[in-house]
Amino acid sequence: MKTVFSTTCLALASMLILSVPLNAIALESVTGKVILTISGKVEAKNSDKGAEFDLAMLERLPQQTFTTMTPWSKQPIKFTGPLLRDVLAAARASGTVLNASALNDFQTSIPMGDARKFDVIIAHHMNGEIISVKTKGPLFIVYPYDSKVELRSVIYYERSVWQLKSLIVK
Ligand SMILES: Nc1nc2c(c(=O)[nH]1)N[C@H]1C(S)=C(S)[C@@H](COP(=O)(O)O)O[C@H]1N2
Ligand SMILES: [Mo]
Question: Oxidoreductase molybdopterin-binding domain location, by residue (predicted)?
Answer without folding.
Answer: 67-144
